[in-house]
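call fold target=ABC transporter ATP-binding protein
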Amino acid sequence: MFNHTVRGSRSPVRDRAGERESTTAVRLDGVTHEYGASGGRLRSSDERTVTALRDVSIEVPMGTTVGLEGPSGSGKSTVLHAVAGLLVPTAGRVELRGTDIAALSDAERTRVRRHHIGIVFQRFHLLPSLSARANVALPLVQSGLPRSDRRERATNLLHDVGLGDRSTHRPGELSGGERQRVAIARALATDPDVIVADEPTGELDTATGTAVLELLTDIGRDRAVVVASHDEATLDVADRVITLCDGRVDDVR
């Protein structure tokens, strides 16, 4: 399952296809991150700061699902953003398969995210005017694949997540669970090494959430998954759960 491999143009991260089972996917080493008091980037050295992460070190091997728990404001989303290359930490290293993506340029981090990282958002973030298949194919537009190949891959992925008969439906014609499955298929479009998921069952009822968790567990067998959640059922599927409190690692179980 999930074996429709796509590789695009050269990425700054070394390609180690075939070594996934034994490779550390993600390593955060002493990561600290400070925001300006307004919540954005620091604009000057004397601006009042809010410390979102404090000396956080986390390792996620391939084939492993790691859950992040903690109260609101504990740093869960900031960890996900660091792993996804959506922010550059104030201090520390964020390694993806041995490459410090925090040290890359904005353009290089974008390429890493495009080829090696899939993101599953709590509120799906699907384009309402596009079909399920077109939403899934969207990350492949810049891959160099012909349109027919993009459509075929998106169709295969929708079949993999149980939506083979819903490929032409727009998000407004799908249930919440179906929209989340489309979002997961989209995150898998480029065959990434790492999936980050922010409250992936937060908008779903219990039965639908359970089905989505089974899907994430299946995904995690040959890649790394980092999932942030308040939901115990979601955390129960993780191989390891890291508790964050006030931006620090408080417990690991």
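return ok
The radius of gyration is 18 Å. The chain is about 30% helix and 25% strand.
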